[in-house]
Amino acid sequence: MSEFASRRLFIGAAAALLAGASMLSAPQAGAEEKITLRFSTPASATDNRSKGLEAIFADGIKDFAVFEPHYNATLFKQGTELAAIQRGNLEMCITSAQELAKQIPEWSIFTAGYLLRDAEHQQKVFNSDIGAEMYKMVEDQLGVKILKVMYFGTRQLNLRTDKKIMTPEDLAGVKLRMPGTDAWQFLGKALGANPTPMAFTEVYTGLQTGAIDGQDNPLPTDKDKKFYEVTKQIVLTGHLADMNFLALRKSVWDGLTADQQKTMMDAAQAAVEEIGRNQLSEEAQLVDFFKSQGLQVYTPDVEAFRTRVQKMYLESEFSKDWPKGMVTRINAVQ
Ligand code: KDO
């Protein structure tokens, strides 16, 4: 019996005992049937993704499931969430192409800088047959159901150093924190920097103490995590139109009725739409905010970054695993 199934039985038995023991504390009708969806993320509770999931996703599924978020990587360390789901110790997380690529090499195509053009292109790609094919690999190989893709924001460089960065050459020797997977480290290298792995929850201190010279994240994350307090500039490289995927253990999905599955998909869709809208609108406003905080915010020679990054990816070991013809198909999505 899976841990999930035994947990349900346990909750059911406990509720039955309670109901029998006291009429005063009778549980709500049907409450004992609810499934608990433990969700782990390194993000904070104030992140737009967290707020959107709690307000919309959790509410949408409340008749049959309890969404139980754990923020700031307090339940599972960044990068261990998928394995925890696979082992049956966790029900949900928001995962990334970089995490999926650790187990499914074909997924590294979506870790390439300057491939997805922007939020709209990204959403269209994943809502097309391309997304369906990629999600099927995750279901078949990992036993994880991708519910929806969410626009997380466009990644920009954020440095504590003064030197102006106009080209990849200017990043030579810059200790750039990237998350700790091969795909992320390669992106840092392709940008011209000296990448170094560090967990997301340690980045603020890393910047404050000078253990790292900079980091990359979407502007809403720089604001939410207050990275502007410990950095001096934001370089608008726009090197990755980044996304996350709302992921659920497939055995949990398979245990839902068809109606519950539809309700869950609708709730996930409504949540990711709201999250994407909020990320985009914050991105449009935040340059002024960072400037008001005394940071230099400017656009470098993006063409120079794009040319170098695309060349390095096409010549990399990663590209050998990309599904045949996929770059052309992605580029063709209008
Ligand atoms: C990060 O560690 O920089 C990153 O932005 C990588 C993303 O894929 C995602 O894991 C994100 O952190 C977390 O959700 C925390 O915001």
Describe the protein in words.
This protein is of the alpha/beta class. The protein is built from 13 helices and nine strands. It has helices at residues 3-21, 48-60, 81-87, 97-103, 119-126, 129-142, 182-190, 203-209, 219-224, 250-254, 258-292, 302-314, 326-332; strands spanning 35-40, 65-70, 92-95, 144-159, 175-178, 194-197, 214-218, 233-249, 296-298. Strands 1, 2, 3, 4, 5, 6, 7, 8 and 9 form a nine-stranded mixed β-sheet that branches. Helix 2 links the parallel strand 1 and strand 2 (65-70). The protein is globular and about 60 Å long. Residues 41-43, 94, 96, 98, 179, 200, 217, 221 line the site of 3-deoxy-alpha-D-manno-oct-2-ulopyranosonic acid (KDO).
Please give a handful of descriptors for the protein shown:
9 strands, 13 helices, 19% strand, binds 3-deoxy-alpha-D-manno-oct-2-ulopyranosonic acid, alpha/beta, nine-stranded mixed beta sheet, 334 residues
Write the layout of secondary structure elements.
Blueprint: H1 3-21, E1 35-40, H2 48-60, E2 65-70, H3 81-87, E3 92-95, H4 97-103, H5 119-126, H6 129-142, E4 144-159, E5 175-178, H7 182-190, E6 194-197, H8 203-209, E7 214-218, H9 219-224, E8 233-249, H10 250-254, H11 258-292, E9 296-298, H12 302-314, H13 326-332
Parallel strand pairs: 1-2, 1-3, 5-6, 5-7, 8-9
Antiparallel strand pairs: 3-8, 4-7, 4-8
Helix pairs in contact: 2-11
The chain binds 3-deoxy-alpha-D-manno-oct-2-ulopyranosonic acid.
